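thought: fold this chain, then report.
action: predict
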Amino acid sequence: MININLLSVSNLPKLNKLRKLELSDNRVSGGLEVLAERTPNLTHLNLSGNKIKDINTLEPLKKLPNLHSLDLFNCEVTMLINYRESVFTLLPQLTYLDGFDADDQEAPDSDPEADGDGLEDEYENGEEDDDDEEDDLDEEVIDDEEDEDDDVEGEEEEDGVDDEEDEEEDGEEDEEDEADDGESKRGEKRKRNLEDEGEEDPEDEEDDEDD
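observation:
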């Protein structure tokens, strides 16, 4: 709610999960106890450019135990002597005031927890996990396909061996058939020879009788 001529936060709804509240460049001068009641988990509060004049105006923020970053740029309160020391003493839970800690060390550019970057990182990590799972599934599919190809090749090789065995068996059967045919032919030839010899025997007997 930046630069909307806001005079008070009294109408702020209850937001238990709110972590970061931007109220800069408005006209808020007090009534900060509403923040403690309605945004109890606030961690970042920006009141820059408002009408905050006294340190005591900030006292209700003591009831925000998780508040660790407070911005009061361009507020009149920043002109007070020992302003920073006074605020850090009043709000011991604070880590950063106006972008610097108590030792004048600058705060990081952004806070992942307050900006929601942590959620984005979780979301991105979730997507990466999904990609890894998809890659694993793809690899499993490829492995399965390779296994199927190996099985097919193995079956083809077995078929080739079976065909060779069948051909060898057919060759042996052909040789046996040829051998049987040869023996049959030789048997028939011997039979014919015997028959021829049997036909010649009566003539020889007749010749013997004539003699």
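thought: worth noting. The helical segments are 33-38, 83-90, 112-115, 117-210.
final: tokens above.
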